[in-house]
Structure formats: C-alpha cells, structure tokens
Write a structure and sequence with these properties.
The complex is a heterodimer of chains A (about 200) and B (about 425). Chain A contains 4 helices and 9 strands. Chain A is α+β, with helices and mostly antiparallel strands and about 200 residues long. In chain B, helix 11 packs across helix 14. Chain B starts with 11 loop residues before the first helix and ends in a 12-residue tail after the last helix. With about 425 residues, chain B is an all-alpha fold. Helix content of chain B is about 60%, strand content about 0%. Classes of the chains: A alpha+beta (about 200), B mainly alpha (about 425).
Amino acid sequence: MANSDSSTNPSLVDDDDPSRRDVIVIGAAAFAAIGGAAVLWPLLDQMNPDASTLSLASIDVDLAPVEEGQAITVMWRGKPIFIRHRTAEEVEAAKDVKLADLPDQLARNANLADTAPATDENRAAADKEPWLVMIGICTHLGCIPQGQAVGSYKGEYGGWYCPCHGSQYDTAGRIRKGPAPENMYIPPYAFTSDTKIKIG
Amino acid sequence: MAHESTYTPSTGIERWLDTRLPIPRLMHDQFGVFPMPRNVNYWWTFGAILSFMLAVQIVTGIVLAMHYQPTTDGAFDSVEKIMRDVNWGWLLRYAHAVGASMFFFAAFIHTFRGLYYGSYKAPREILWMLGVLILFLMIATAFMGYSLVWGQMSFWAVTVITNLFTSLDTLIPGLGTTLVQWIWGGFSVGEPTLNRLFALHYLFPFIIAGVVILHIWALHIPGSNNPTGVEVKTKSDTLPFHPYFTIKDGFAVVLFCLLFGVFLFYAPNYLGHTDNYIPANPLQTPPHIVPEWYFLPFYAILRAIPDKLLGVVGLIGAIVVLFFIPWLDTSRIRSVSYRPIFKWFFWLFVICCLALGYFGSQAPEGWKLLWGRICTFYYFAFFLIIMPVVGLIEKPKRLPGSITESVLGKKDTSASGGNA
C-alpha cells in the first residue's frame, strides 16, 4: 500500500508471461523427481546379491566315486545340486515318455536354448546320458525333493518326490504330477574331463 | 463423536502446557471424559488388550534383540543361549513367542467382533481399513520374527513363502526370480536374508504402533459402535471413558493375562512346532511343513487352489478382500443381532475359518483337500456374494429406539416387559 510503484515492488509486477514461471516450476519438479529416483535406486539395489555372493559362481565336482545307481548332492550358490548317475533302466524309462505327456515340455536347461524340448537327451549331460545334473529345488515353492538317498521314496515315476506339497518328478527330473509348474532346472555346467564337471 | 473440549487447566503448569503442547487436554478429552456407549459388552475390551499385547511384544522384543545374533551361524545358538544362559532369558523369549500367539488370538476376536456388530459401516470405514492394515502388518511382522529363530521350520517357512513370488514368472518370465533374489540378497535364503528380516522385524512394530494411533484417532471421530449398532443420540446413551471403561478394560486385560500366563508358564511350546528346535538345514526339507497356528487358515487357502499363481492370489486376496467389506455389505443394519438371515451365514463363516485352520494343519489329500476347497470357496463367497445379496433381500428385526432404551427398556412399556 505504501509503495504502489510496480517497478520497485516485485509482488505487484503484472506478469503477462506465465510461461516463464511454468518453466521454473516444471523444471524444479522434474529435477526433484529424477533426483529422488536416483537416491532411491541405491537404497533398493543394496538388497540385491552382493559382490561376494556373485563371486561364488562356480565349483568343481569329481564324479569318479559315484557308481551307477548312486546320486550325490553338492552345494552351488547356496542351492543343492542333484547329480545322479542313472541306471540304464532309468534312462530308458525317461526316454520312453512322450513329450505330450509332460506338464512342462521345455528342457529348462541353462546350457541349451530356452525353447529346447524336454527330451531326455536335452535334460541329461551332453553325450553322457547316464548323468543328470540339476538344481534340486522343487519348482513349486522351493522345497528339496527326496529321492537322492538309495532307500528314499522316489515317487510314482522313480525320480524325486517333494514332501511339501506332493510334486512328483521322473528319472529325468521332469515334473509329472502335483502342483509344481516346471521341470527342475539344469544349471550351467560342463565336463572338464571324463569324470570331472564344473558347475557355474 | 467429536465433542467440545471440557478441559479446564487447574494448575499453573497445566495452563502453561495448554498453550504450548496440550497433552493434558488431549488425555482429558480422549481418554478421560470421552463418551462411550453405555451398552458396550466385553467384546469391546479387546482394543485395550491388543494395545497391551503390542506393548508386551515391543518391550520383550527390544530386550531379546540385546542378546540375539542375526547370523546363520549364530542365530540358533544365540536363541538357545537366551534360553539357558541369559538372566530371565527363558521368560523373555517365551513371553515374546507366546505373546505373538496371544496377540493374534486377540486380534482375531477383535476382527470378528467388528464383523458381527458391523463396526466397518459408515462412518467407520477408514477405522476398519486401518485395522485390516494393522492385521496385515502383524502378519508380516510375525512371519519375519519366526524366521529369526533359524530352526528348520523358520528356514523352510521363509523359503516357501518367499518362493511364492516366483509365481510372477508365469506373468512375465524372470520377474519373480529377479524379485525373489532381491528379497534374499542371494540365490537362496541365507545370511543376507536373515539380516534384513531382523532389521525389518525390529522396524515393523513401530509402524504398527503408528497405525494404531491413526486407528484410535479414526475411532474417536465417530466414537465407538455398540452391540445394537444404533448411534448415540443423547447424553444418557453414554458414560465417560474414565472411570467406567478404564476399569472394565483393565479388568479384561487382567483376565487375558491369566490365559497368557497359563500358556507362558505351563505350556510355552504347545503352540509352536518341535521341528523348530532343529537348526536350519538348507539341504533337508522337513517332511511336513506347517506355519504357526495363526496362519493356518491362510495356508489352507494357498494349498486348496491347485494353480501356483492363483494360490498366491487367493492367499493375499483373503486379506485384501477385508478392505472392501464396508462397500460389499449392502445392509443398512450394523449389528448381526438384528439380521435374521445374515446371522446364519455369519456363524457358518466363523465355523469355516476354524475349519480352514484345521485343514491348514493337515496334509492336503483326499476329503481334507476337498473340504479345504469348499471352505475356501465359502470364505470368498461370504464376502463377495452373500454380503451384497443378503443385505438386499433381508428384512431386519426392529431396532431399539436408542441405546438407553435397549438397556433400560421403554419407559411406557416397562410394566409389560419383554421388548426386544
């Protein structure tokens, strides 16, 4: 009131160009949003597997002591890896299954293409069909199926049986019955010699 | 009932506070003279019981954290050290573990009370939804707390429940796996998982306490519901909170402590599972995994649905559906006492929840699986079909004219007696 001269009182400046202010408001808000997101990312990403976890990427396993019909379990990335030296009958039983009878028709083999069908060849080790190497975790809710020990119940299909919710796997580790949606996964691995494999 | 403040500061320090931070005025208005419907019964004491149990859990939890080690090597042993070596450690740990059960027991009664008397209806929708949020936070907190023991049941409960997220892989390949590895901080449940569960388990009770304050705030705007569901009309319908309901709530808390004490001192492990006294073994799944008793109905719903993703949707939906009850129930009558048709469906729902609890503890096979599915169907049908439909077709009983009338009877007909 005391000073009504618009040239010296900024609150009385007649702003006939509101777009100048819009630029500042939108710019500041956008900068704050981007800045907020940039700060949020480290807070979220810190929960992902850290460097020491990622460095435990591969292990070597000697298969020489595993006789036909036996199975061993090793740990890789905190997960049990089932390695079974299958008998000829078990291989035959797995080969006889028609693809159409499988609930999950994909091989789930990290060493093959994602679209590879779940034939026994695609599930077993390359050129060493008696050997089956897979992550021993039920694809339903992550329990460890039984069937590794010689006397344990292996389910109706002679492979593995999950005690939690009754999923049954065949001798190629493929889901046959029960709530699990997928075959047990094959980890990335390769034979480094006739009797040694490297997982991961 | 947001009412005029009747507080008059009587001392100098109260007058000084009243113009700065008027906590004495808040306490006087909200917990002193606050008008309560005079006819509320003992089912209305569970709010106080739950506040008491939250305090028990926070106090015992803080002191247990002083002795606990959130490492895969140390966790199980540190719990046993608390039980054997720490002064009064057995009492503190059993009080915390049994306290969790008591907390849920009271929360379930409190929730069913709200359901029966229609305490979720206008103008108490936000009050109800905050309550459901508290229940959800309690479930998350209890789950994380159970994992900290790092016994076999702890480990496999965490494994199975976190693996629920992998069902998202069926929507977008890799989404669930990415999410679950983020939750684990690794490729399986391990030390990073345990550490973060501990951090969050310590945090969540304080979030619950915050939501409880909002819950009480939302309660004190319309005021308490009552067994008739008829709103307060005159001053004769109410009594001041203190001393009438401080005493009544206090007495109920004492009675509840008797029950708490029976379990705490005579059967502290009765509500737990013996397998959780076996240290966690990532290579061996126990033959029969069951959650704590208070999760059994939800677990039964998960297992009743044969599809992995839909099972998870059902599990989460069982809680989420509660948020929508204020709008699913089409009846204008609050209290089930005055709803002759809905009454039957309500009690069948209570039986259904108990049955789901039983089926959740059993192997999902044969007739038990079938009935688990029937109960799961009824659980959702109760909210999504029965609540909207019965409210439209039902003819309710005549409501009392006022709360006072329901307590004292109509003055002009008191001689003839026998009014509803």
